[in-house]
Design brief:
Layout: E1 9-13, H1 17-29, E2 33-37, H2 40-50, E3 54-58, H3 66-76, E4 82-86, H4 91-99, E5 104-107, H5 112-123, H6 127-130, E6 137-140, E7 143-146, E8 151-154, E9 157-159, H7 163-174, E10 180-181, H8 182-190, H9 200-214, E11 223-226, E12 230-233
Parallel strand pairs: 1-2, 1-3, 3-4, 4-5
Antiparallel strand pairs: 6-7, 7-8, 8-9, 10-12, 11-12
């Protein structure tokens, strides 16, 4: 039996009562401490107060929609992993979620096993799960990456990266000079393959976000696309 002190805490923000109760039951059975909220405003308040290990966030919510909740949460806490749940299988919604700082997503209806696997991956965040970084910090151009506190600075100003964006940047730095396939990145960073619904477009979106947030001032991109293969980190 799991010791209560060792339980990971997740927050589920969902206004459909039957689905909320079912998810809460399933995750409690899996050994998580589960918090629930039925409105966007309540979910944001609980996330800021409780600081859960992961948030499962529906998009269509009363009071505040999921996008607004995600945006306001990211303004104050970058480190809490957020998985977006959406019934609308529109690519624009998925990309908007990633742009606002979501770490993963599922489209309703989803498999409980798939969701459990994704949440498990999100909450397994310690250095023992990803391997110790080769150095405490790494700098390129006017960018400094601090591995231990998981912080990134550009021209001495901190840049807000989502959990997955940081993990992607870290992995590419650790394997700098080598072309890393999109499939490898999906497996290593997201812990899934395309069969579970996360596509290589997810990798492309996160690379684009990193370039947008950190790329100003560089004559050439520091993450180079290798045609039909993947990406390579190249020191500027």
């Amino acid at each position: 039996m799991t010791n209560n002190n060792d339980k990971k805490k997740i927050l589920i923000v969902e206004d459909e009562e039957g689905l909320l109760d079912g998810l809460a039951h399933n995750f409690r059975y899996e050994g998580y401490e589960v918090l629930t909220a039925k409105t966007g405003q309540e979910g944001l308040r609980m996330a800021l107060k409780q600081k859960p290990d992961a948030v499962l966030l529906d998009i269509m919510l009363p009071e505040k929609d999921g996008f607004t909740v995600l945006k306001e949460l990211r303004q104050r806490h970058r480190e809490i992993p957020v998985l977006v749940m959406t019934a609308r299988n529109f690519e624009a919604d998925v990309l908007k979620g990633f742009d606002l700082g979501a770490d993963d997503y599922v489209t309703k209806p989803f498999s409980p096993k798939e969701l459990a696997a994704r949440v498990k991956r999100l909450v397994a965040r310690g250095p023992m799960n990803t391997g110790a970084p080769p150095t405490t910090t790494y700098s390129f151009g006017d960018v400094e990456v601090r591995f231990e506190p998981r912080e990134v600075y550009k021209t001495a100003k901190q840049v807000a990266l989502s959990f997955k964006e940081f993990e992607l940047l870290k992995y590419l730095i650790e394997h700098r000079g080598r072309t890393v396939s999109r499939e490898e990145l999906l497996e290593e960073i997201w812990g899934v393959d395309e069969e579970l619904g996360v596509t290589t477009r997810t990798v492309d979106t996160h690379v684009s976000n990193l370039r947008s947030k950190l790329g100003d001032g560089f004559e050439k991109p520091f993450i180079v696309a290798v045609h039909k293969v993947g990406y390579k980190f190249v020191e500027p």
